[in-house]
Design goal:
Blueprint: H1 2-17, E1 37-43, E2 45-46, E3 58-59, H2 62-81, E4 88-93, H3 100-113, E5 118-123, H4 130-138, E6 143-149, H5 153-158, H6 162-165, H7 168-178, E7 184-191, H8 198-211, E8 215-220, H9 225-234, H10 243-254, E9 259-262, E10 265-267, H11 276-279, E11 282-286, E12 291-294, E13 297-301, H12 305-313, E14 319-324, H13 327-340, E15 343-345, H14 346-352, H15 357-370, E16 374-377, E17 380-383, H16 385-412
Parallel strand pairs: 1-4, 1-11, 2-3, 4-5, 5-6, 6-7, 7-8
Antiparallel strand pairs: 8-10, 9-10, 12-13, 13-14, 15-17, 16-17
The structure holds iron/sulfur cluster (SF4).
Length: about 425
């Protein structure tokens, strides 16, 4: 009952939060403060497209991709001219390593312009080659995140990854050979695929434990309404009924050896976690289809890759939509993201919002307290095991709302 209510409310709230405003886009504010911010860079090219994927991505074409990287360098320079000083970089996709020489130039430039401390890059198993690893290492990449999804060959075939990235055995071998080259090697996994049983998940967990991965991120399957149709045809019916049981299995197996970096990220060491939205209060989203959150405003860049390039050729930021969060929305956003890391520092949020955080958020806090989602200790709220699953639901619904927003923008831009 509580789970259904949380799911329904989260769905409504996040759809509203991502209801972008119409009208004149605000200018990107000049930045003269020292706030810790992250630079998110989006590379929307993949050699082939997977049916379950709701990210902004298109099939790789080298000439277009080279022009795109050039435009991305221009965009980075504009943010530098506007006074931004980023401390971390997250390169996501698509497949960021699709043109490694271009990624090399991008990371070089960003490190020349900003005081970068952490770099995290996503990749796919077939890109774990000595040549690419050497370039990533040379660029001080701390965390390499590999899209594995599952080691189960039947599932890999169904989701169209077996042919592209090899069998589960080959993927595990590639991960093993990449260990030790980066501070954190992360495996991105998905649970609750249609037809995925506890036994299948147990096998994935056994392989990960045997590999002794530095970090494992286990996402619940979260697809947009549009992708759902493709999934039904290729993989099967998506059902959230068995999700909690599978999540609890993951927590039981990994919880013995790993710490929680977030409700679905398990780390051996102090690592830069996947959800940059947790570690950094603000982030700039660069690249086509990127979403950023700066000075209480959520921005989105155009999803049309040609327009993205054309805008930057005129040295114009390719912003497409925005939403100004009011103070209550900003607090709700912080509440969601901070607790996703499994703990929330009340004193810090009271300070950030001039002692208004508790006064404004008392309803949300009390509601989750009644259902025992967290416990209070020494100025912190800590998620309970039940609260962790509630936060998995909330974040799943948050990312589904983001995916629906992406679908809408991609449709507007004529991207398939
Ligand atoms: S899952 Fe990864 S490789 Fe597959 S289409 Fe999406 S971004 Fe590309």
């Amino acid at each position: 009952m509580i789970i259904q209510v949380v799911t329904r409310l989260a769905k409504q709230k996040f759809a509203g939060l991502l209801n972008f405003e119409k009208g004149r886009l605000p200018e990107l504010t000049f930045c003269n403060d020292e706030k810790k911010r992250l630079l998110y860079l989006h590379i929307p090219f993949c050699e082939e497209l997977c049916p379950f994927c709701s990210f902004h991505r298109v099939t790789f074409e080298e000439p277009l991709a080279r022009k795109y990287f050039q435009a991305l360098r221009r965009e980075i320079k504009i943010y530098h001219e506007k006074g931004y000083k980023f401390e971390g970089i997250y390169v996501g996709g698509g497949t960021p390593t699709v043109l490694i020489d271009e990624l090399d130039q991008i990371l070089n430039l960003a490190q020349e312009l900003f005081p970068i401390k952490d770099i995290s890059v996503e990749t796919n198993p077939h890109h774990l080659t000595p040549e690419k690893i050497e370039i990533l290492q040379k660029n001080n990449v701390h965390r390499l995140s590999v899209g594995v999804q599952t080691f189960n060959d039947d599932l890999l075939k169904k989701i169209g990854r077996y042919e592209k990235y090899g069998s589960g055995k080959i993927i595990a071998e590639r991960l093993k050979n990449t260990q030790g080259y980066f501070h954190t090697l992360n495996a991105d996994m998905i649970f609750n695929f249609p037809g995925q049983t506890s036994e299948m998940l147990e096998e994935d967990l056994a392989i990960l434990l045997n590999l002794n991965m530095d970090q494992v991120t286990f996402y619940p399957l979260m697809i947009s309404s549009l992708t759902q149709e493709t999934m039904e045809k290729t993989v099967g019916h998506v059902d959230f009924g068995g999700e909690r049981k599978l999540y609890e299995l993951i927590v039981r197996r990994l919880g013995k050896y790993y710490d929680f970096s977030s409700a679905w990220c398990f780390s051996h060491k102090e690592s830069l976690i996947d959800e940059y939205v947790v570690k950094f209060e603000e982030y700039a989203g660069l690249g086509s289809g990127s979403i950023g959150y700066l000075h209480g405003i959520c921005y989105s860049n155009t999803f049309d890759i040609e327009s993205y390039i054309a805008s930057l050729e005129k040295s114009k930021l390719p912003l497409q939509a925005f939403r100004k969060f009011d103070l209550h929305d900003q607090m709700r956003y912080d509440f969601l993201m901070k607790l996703f890391s499994t703990k929330l520092d009340i004193t810090a949020l009271q300070k950030k919002y001039d002692n208004k955080f508790l006064k404004t958020m008392w309803k949300e806090i009390s509601a989750f307290e009644i259902v025992r989602a967290f416990r209070y200790f020494d100025h912190y709220l800590y998620l309970t095991p039940y609260g962790r699953y509630l936060w998995v639901i909330m974040m799943r619904e948050f990312f589904i709302a983001v995916n629906n927003f992406r679908d809408y923008c991609r449709k507007q831009a004529g991207v398939k």
